[in-house]
């Protein structure tokens, strides 16, 4: 296991924050989101707005209008609820160059419980026109995403995590928005995952391989725009798709994949994720076990899916 993704994010903000156009806003949780690392180095371009997420997102619109590149930071659940009206008006409708960084995605704020878990954020943000929705899988991808947000003009939502993630990529790996990364070959079924679940899916694929089942694994880090070609190719070549996400199965990655399949190549699909429910407080690993998000549960879901193939 590597460092926590939030630590990689703080380091990336510091690394690329010398660009004078970059400003960083936080809603009084900079020690948690790690935006404080940037603030300590560049206090004149760092703004702690207090517990006022909607105001923070609206302020970032003003910065964007004046040619700055604003990174707004708070827990994903608050950014995509309290901050939603401003995100819809200024990022989505007005197409301003706003970078909305949702920390503590999924169940990663484990002990703060259901009020702090973000299990609906991907569904909310991918429903906003003009907003790209990207999910960080490991530290290498976090670094690349921060660079991308600086270099790309347009509104972006990036889902980050409080916790550690199993390494997926090597240093220097290159990515393309709208293109999935094939991180494992396989011909019996395809596992399509995002975020920390990509590392979990790779572990599940190893367990399946020990049983003689070879699973392809795609990291769909770009949920919007989504890689329709990779999904259709996987359906044609493996005949079954298992979506794996740390999110409600309604409206998230699995729904996005299903939309592509039903319009192009219907095949059996299984869904690993939260089953339309809130989660309890608890240790991160224990929550993954309880809600059947760990490698063994993914393996079992894949076996059940293959019965329908």
What does this structure look like?
This protein is 40% helix and 19% strand. With 309 residues, the chain is α/β, with parallel strands linked by helices. It has 2 domains: 5-159, 3-Layer(aba) Sandwich (Rossmann fold); 181-306, Rossmann fold (3-Layer(aba) Sandwich), CATH 3.40.50. The chain has a 7-stranded mixed sheet, with helices on both faces. Helix 9 (197-209) links the parallel strand 8 (189-193) and strand 9. Helix 4 runs parallel beside helix 6 (84-93) and helix 9 (197-209) crosses helix 13 (295-306). The radius of gyration is 19 Å and the shape is globular. The mean pLDDT is 97.
Features:
alpha/beta, five-stranded mixed beta sheet, seven-stranded mixed beta sheet, 2 domains
Task: Reconstruct the topology from this structure.
Layout: H1 5-16, E1 22-26, H2 30-33, H3 36-41, E2 46-48, H4 53-65, E3 69-75, H5 76-79, H6 84-93, E4 99-103, H7 121-126, E5 132-135, H8 139-151, E6 156-159, E7 181-184, E8 189-193, H9 197-209, E9 215-219, E10 222-224, H10 228-238, E11 241-248, H11 253-264, E12 269-274, H12 284-290, H13 295-306
Helix pairs in contact: 1-8, 4-6, 9-13, 10-11
């Amino acid at each position: 296991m590597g460092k926590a993704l939030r630590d990689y994010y703080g380091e990336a903000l510091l690394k690329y924050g010398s660009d004078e156009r970059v400003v960083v806003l936080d809603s009084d949780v900079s020690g948690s989101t790690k935006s404080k690392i940037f603030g300590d180095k560049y206090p004149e371009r760092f703004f702690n707005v207090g517990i006022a997420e909607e105001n923070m997102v609206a302020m970032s619109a003003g910065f964007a209008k004046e040619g700055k590149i604003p990174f707004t930071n708070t827990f994903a659940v608050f950014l995509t609820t309290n901050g939603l009206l401003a995100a819809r008006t200024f990022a989505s409708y007005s197409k301003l160059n706003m970078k909305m960084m949702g920390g503590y995605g999924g169940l990663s704020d484990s002990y703060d419980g259901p009020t702090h878990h973000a299990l609906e954020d991907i569904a909310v943000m991918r429903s906003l026109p003009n907003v790209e929705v990207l999910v960080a899988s490991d530290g290498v991808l976090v670094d690349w995403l921060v660079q991308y947000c600086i270099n790309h003009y347009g509104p972006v939502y990036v889902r980050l995590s409080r916790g550690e993630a199993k390494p997926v990529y090597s240093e220097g790996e290159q990515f393309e928005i709208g293109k999935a990364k094939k991180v494992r070959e396989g011909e019996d079924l395809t596992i399509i995952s995002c975020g920390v679940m990509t590392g979990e899916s790779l572990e599940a694929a190893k367990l399946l391989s020990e049983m003689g089942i070879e699973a392809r694994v795609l990291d769909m880090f770009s949920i919007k725009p989504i890689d329709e070609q990779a999904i259709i190719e996987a359906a044609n070549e493996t005949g079954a798709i298992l979506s794996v996400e740390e999110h409600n199965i309604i409206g998230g990655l699995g729904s996005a994949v299903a939309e592509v399949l039903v319009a192009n190549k219907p095949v059996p699909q299984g869904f690993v994720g939260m089953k339309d429910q809130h989660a309890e407080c608890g240790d991160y690993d224990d929550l993954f076990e309880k809600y059947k998000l760990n490698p063994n549960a993914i393996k079992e879901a894949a076996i059940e899916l293959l019965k329908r193939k």
